[in-house]
Amino acid sequence: MSRYPQADIDAVYRAIRERRDMRHFKPDPVDPDIMQRLLAAAHFAPSVGFMQPWRFIRIRSLELRRRMHALVEEERIQTARALGEREDVFMKLKVEGLLDCGEVLVAALMDGRERHVFGRRTLPEMDLASVACAIQNMWLAARAEGLGLGWVSIFDPAKLAALLSIPPGARPVAILCIGHVEAFYEKPMLEQESWASRQNLADLVYDDRWPDA
User: Fold this and answer.
1) pLDDT of 1-10, one tens digit each?
2) pLDDT tens column, 177-187
3) What 3-state DSSP class applies to 3?
4) CA distances for 88 relative to 77, 83, 123, 142, angstroms
5) Distance CA 8, CA 3 (A)
6) How much of the chain is in helix, strand and coil states, percent to nearest 5?
């Protein structure tokens, strides 16, 4: 039978529905076996041309975490300034949990990607899409395991690459904070904080062609 039992189907949709981009963590360590399962889940993601462009760097050094946190804070201030009238509201938002969570990973694109043409000749950005699929796999697995995951994108990629000795041609695309949480947000945090609201799905699905403006 190709269809999963209903309980399994419900569990998949529940994980999708209840996944949250977490910012608040408890410092408790993550069980190594669970961490390995999360990494394996990421590695089972689809990738264009089966190129598997993801690389993960586990940040075990507290000093490195602090230096990464400083990079994020530097960019957070620049982002706030770029937001103009929303600067003060943005500065009140918690945008990362780097110094609080049990595990920190950096997800990066591998070097030598120019060799991979299959599926990328006209859409070279599909390597990034593949890494995003790996992160989403990990995110859903983490939620099923009762762990929070937060995707941090507020950093200068060149500065983070230099800090982590990432070679030319490769680049970091996400800092992932993973760990135990007191509770998952009832709604996405930015919706909870009235920064934005979820759009109506019916407004985002078109038939046959892009609608007239």
Assistant:
1) 799 999 999 9
2) 999 999 999 99
3) coil
4) 10, 9, 38, 32
5) 10
6) 45, 15, 45
